[in-house]
Amino acid sequence: MAHMGDFLTEMLIAYGVKCVFGMPGGQTSALYEGLATRQSRIRHVLVRDERNAVYAADAFARMTGRPGVCDVTVGPGCTKLTDGFVEALNASIPLIAIVGDLPRDWLPLKAKGVASQGFDQLGFLKSIAKDAWIVPTASAFPEMVRLAFRAATAPRPGPVALIIPHDVFDADWDEDRRPVVADDRYACAPAHRSRPLPEPIERAVEQIARAKRPMIVAGGGVHGSGAYDELEALAQKADALVATSLTGKGAFCETSNRSVGVLNPMGSRAALALAPAADLIVWCGSKASQNTANNWTLPTAEQATITIDDDPQEHGRTFRPTVALFGDVRSTLRELTPRLTQNSNAEWLERAETQRRAHEAALDEDSRSDALPLHPARVLREIAARLAPDDIVVSDASFSSGWIGQYLPARKAARRFLYARGQGSLGYAVPGSLGAALSAPGARIVTVSGDGGFSFYIGELATQAQLGLPVVNVVFNNGVLGWLAMWEQVFYNNTRLSVDLESNRARPSYAAAATGLGLKGLQIESPGDIATALDEAFAFDGPSVVEVRTDPNATPIHSLRRRLQDPNPDRKRPGTVYQLRDWKRSPSL
C-alpha cells in the first residue's frame, strides 16, 4: 500500500517543486521511494554533505522564486541545516527542509542520544528558522505541508522545517481519505503583494519632486519582488542614480548611465563617493545593512530618505525614514511612479559620469596588469568578456564578493548574480551552482571562490561531474585566508597565525583535485595562460575548475588597501572603537 512518503512527493509535485536536494537516511526512506517512483515529474539530487543541500535549494529558490526544498535525516543531518538556514532567514529566501525524526513514542529516549541520533530537533530548528513544526499524525500531514508552503512564501519569505517522525512517514496513505490538495497561492514568493496607503505615497511623491540629487539603493528585495521594470521606470521618472547592494546586484543594468555600481566598502568607488552627496536616498528593498550603509555612515543626518519594504520592522531599524512605504517593492513602485512628474537632474548625472570614469580608470589599471602573481582583476576582465547576458555568476563570501561586485558588470536587469550575504559564510558558491544550473537549463554557471572558501565544499565537485553541469569554477589561489591575514597584519601587530593554507610540505592543487573527481582541471599562472584556459573551460561540455595563482596582497576592500599601503597605519583594535551609531531621524526636503 502507498505510504506518506508517496503522499509528500505528490504534494511537492502539486506545488510545482521540480527538484529536491539532499542525502538519504533510514528515517526518510519512504520519501525516497516516493521520489523514485515519480522521477519523470520530480528530481532528486544527491549531495555529498547535507550542508550543501540547503545552499543548493537556496540558489534554486533565488533563481525561480519558488521554495527550494531539501531533505536531511535525523540528528547529524538536521544540525547541518544551520549555515544555510541562517543565510536564508537573513536573506528572505523561501526554503522548506524535510527533516527525518525518530518514532513518536521514542520521545523519552531522545535525551543524550540514548536513541541513536536523537535530540530536540524542534527546539534547535526554531532558533534558526522562520518556523518549524513536527508532523504529529498522518491525518495532520496534508495541512502541515500547506502550512509549510504558506509560511515559506508569505511576506517575509524564509526557511521552514517539517520534522516528520519515522512512524508517520511510513504510515499508510489512503488517497480517498487524504487527497492531494495544494494551495497554489503559496507556490511562489511573494505569495501576497501588499501596497502602501495613499498618504505616504503622496508624501514620497513630494520628496522625489524636490530632490536635486536623488539616489536609489536597490537591494535583494527588488529581485525577490521581480521589480526590474518598475525600478527602471522610477529611476527615469525621478532622474535618479541607482546603486545596488551586493545581494541586489543585477536589479539594475550596470551599463546604464544611471548606474553607479555596488554600494559596499568593497564595491564601486563611484557609489561610495556619490551616496553621501545625495539629498535623497530611496532604500528600495534594502535593509540598509552594515556594508550597504557603509558601516552605517549612511544615511547622513542631512539626507531625506524613503524606505520601501514589506517588513514593517525594517522601517526604522537604524534610522527613521522621512517616508516609510510599507509594501511589496513591485506593487509599491507601480503605485508611486505614475504619480511622479518628470524630474531633470542633469548636473547630478554629469557628476556621476565623472565619478564613474575615475572608478573605471582605477579598475582598468589592475585589470591590465601583467605582474606576477596575477591580480584577480586581470582574470576577471577576461571572464567578463566571455559571459553571456543569461549566464549566472555565483559568488563565495569574503574577497570573491568584492571582485565580482567591481569587475563583472550586470549587463541586464535580472537575477544573474547570486551572493550569500545573509550570513556571509564561506562555502556557498559550488553548492549554489547546483541549484542555479538545475533552475536554468542552458545557462552557463560561473563560480568564483578563494582557495579558503573552495576548500569547504570540494566534495560537491563530484556532484557537478555526476550531473554533467555546465559550471566553470574559478578559484583564486593565493595560499592564504586573505582577509584574515590582512586583518591580523593591520590591526594586531603583524600577527600571522593559522591563516596560511599551504607550506613547504604541501601546496594544494585544486585543478588536480578536480581532475581526480571527474572535472576538467586547468591552471593559470601567467598572463599567457589566461585566454587559453578560459576558452577551454567555457567551451567544455561539463564542469571545470580554473585555478589561478593570485597575489596574496590584493584586496577589493578600499579602506584595507589604504591601510596596507600606509607606512604608519592606525593600529587601534577594531573592538575598542566600535560604537552603536546614533539613531537618526531623516529630515524632509
TrEMBL record:
GO terms for cellular component? acetolactate synthase complex
| Positions of the Thiamine pyrophosphate enzyme central domain | 201-336
Q: Which GO terms describe its molecular function?
A: acetolactate synthase activity; flavin adenine dinucleotide binding; magnesium ion binding; thiamine pyrophosphate binding
- One Pfam family of this chain: TPP_enzyme_N
Cofactor section: thiamine diphosphate
For this entry, list what GO says about its biological process.
isoleucine biosynthetic process; L-valine biosynthetic process
Q: Where is this region: Disordered?
A: 556-589
- Record bears the keyword Ubl conjugation: no
PANTHER family named in the record: ACETOLACTATE SYNTHASE CATALYTIC SUBUNIT, MITOCHONDRIAL (PTHR18968:SF13), THIAMINE PYROPHOSPHATE ENZYMES (PTHR18968)
Recorded family membership: Belongs to the TPP enzyme family.
Q: What is this protein called?
A: Acetolactate synthase-1/2/3 large subunit
